[in-house]
Write a structure and sequence with these properties.
One of its GO terms (biological process) is carbohydrate metabolic process. InterPro entries: Aldose_1/G6P_1-epimerase (IPR008183), G6P_1-epimerase (IPR025532), Gal_mutarotase_sf_dom (IPR011013), GH-type_carb-bd (IPR014718). It catalyses: alpha-D-glucose 6-phosphate = beta-D-glucose 6-phosphate. This protein has helices at residues 129-134, 258-264, 316-321; strands at 17-21, 27-32, 38-42, 47-52, 80-81, 103-104, 119-126, 139-147, 153-161, 169-175, 178-180, 187-190, 196-199, 205-208, 220-224, 230-235, 240-247, 251-256, 276-290, 295-306, 309-310, 313-314. The protein is mostly beta strands. It has one domain (17-321): Beta-galactosidase, Chain A, domain 5, CATH 2.70.98.10. The strands form 4 sheets. Strands 5, 10, 11, 13, 14, 15, 18 and 19 form an 8-stranded antiparallel β-sheet that branches. An 8-stranded antiparallel β-sheet has the order 6-7-8-9-20-17-16-12. A 4-stranded antiparallel β-sheet has the order 1-2-3-4, with no helix packed on it. The chain is globular and about 50 Å long. The structure holds 6-O-phosphono-beta-D-glucopyranose (BG6). Residues 73, 86, 93-94, 176, 200, 221, 253, 255, 280 line the site of 6-O-phosphono-beta-D-glucopyranose.
Length: 323
């Protein structure tokens, strides 16, 4: 894919980008960086299902019961919620992008910033006749998924209104990232303390978070509002910190189904809630509105770094203020 200009029906692979088949023969792209990190992306949903560091350790949670069969969305990895987050509209839960077959975009418009990465793939989803019945708008959604030389995973969404009759459209959005954690009761999230949130478990009522980092001992489903561009997920047991950097995405959803909801989900193991946490960079409270011809950009950058200890406590300043 990298550097290719011509449109070809079967994209050719390189040492950095391999086009192959995944579960159930679904088309899959593997990105590899020279130091050993990798990522896997299904064209079904433009869904990242794996992100490994240069030691080959998996950083995303993927359920052992995930169903790789349309129209079910894949449970785990990074589902794309577009054009609707959750049930906030008339569409099916989380919109349709996560259960559509995307195409490889052979000739994407140039990116304003130069990326050092050679391990990237550009995907595209356009309006289909079927979707326009429920969401009567014409759009082009371009997604670049890139692995940086240091193993960072970067997702850039560019969504354009291509309506020809002058109609604007609005949407809500989330990168529904499932992080893999050693034990949910040993995890802290920093960067969301003192913020307002809507609690999905209490009719989306608005509350204010206490001053401490978030910890987990029961089901959580909250939409934090106007969040900082950097959030840290600290896994004490693994001594690993995930850093989420986001741009164009003011909100952040934190979700763990805990035991009862886990049992109710057919594509999720009963105990798997212990090993995952969703922290989702999102635009929910204020939907994005695009006039015809306008484009919106939303960027997610994930990195995983070894945690450092400072008098028995992880030092949040180093994580959140460090570059
Ligand atoms: O089962 P789904 O459709 O993938 O959704 C999973 C969860 O996704 C979260 O983003 C929502 O806040 C939760 O309410 C929801 O349960």
């Amino acid at each position: 894919m990298s550097g290719e200009k011509e449109k070809t029906s079967a994209p050719s692979s390189s040492p950095y980008v391999e086009f192959c088949k995944g579960v159930n023969g679904l088309d899959k792209v593997i990105l590899r960086e020279s130091r050993g990190s990798s990522a896997e992306v299904y064209l079904y949903g433009a869904h990242v299902t794996s992100w490994k560091n240069d030691h080959g350790e998996e950083l995303l949670f993927l359920s052992s019961k995930a169903v790789f069969k349309p129209p079910k969305a894949i449970r785990g990895g990074i589902p794309i919620c577009f054009p609707q987050f959750g049930g906030l509209g008339t569409l099916d839960q989380h919109g349709f992008a996560r259960n559509r077959l995307w195409s490889v975009d052979d000739d994407p418009p140039p990116f304003p910033t130069n990326t050092l990465s050679k391990a990237f793939v550009d995907l595209i989803l356009k309006t289909s006749e079927e979707d326009s019945k429920n969401w009567p708008h014409s759009f082009e959604y371009r997604l670049r998924i890139a692995l940086g030389p240091g193993g960072d995973l970067m997702l850039t969404s560019r969504i354009r209104n291509t309506n020809s009759e002058g109609k604007p459209f609005s949407f809500t959005f989330a990168y529904h990232t499932y992080f893999s954690v050693s034990d949910i009761s040993e995890v802290r999230v920093e960067g969301l303390e003192t913020l307002d949130y809507l609690d999905n478990l209490q009719n989306k009522e608005r509350f204010t978070e206490q001053g401490d980092a978030l910890t987990f001992e029961s089901e959580v489903d909250k939409i934090y509002l106007s969040t900082p561009t950097k959030i840290a997920i600290i896994d004490h047991e693994k001594k690993r910190t995930f850093v989420v950097r986001k741009d164009g995405l003011p909100d952040a959803v934190v979700w763990n189904p805990w035991d009862k909801k886990a049992k109710a989900m057919s594509d999720f193991g009963d105990d798997e809630y212990k090993h995952m946490l969703c922290v989702e960079a999102a635009a929910i409270e204020k939907p994005i509105t695009l006039k015809p011809g306008e484009e919106w950009k939303g960027r997610l950058e994930l990195s995983a770094v070894p945690s450092s200890y400072c008098s028995g406590q992880l030092d949040p300043q180093r994580v959140l203020l460090g570059s």
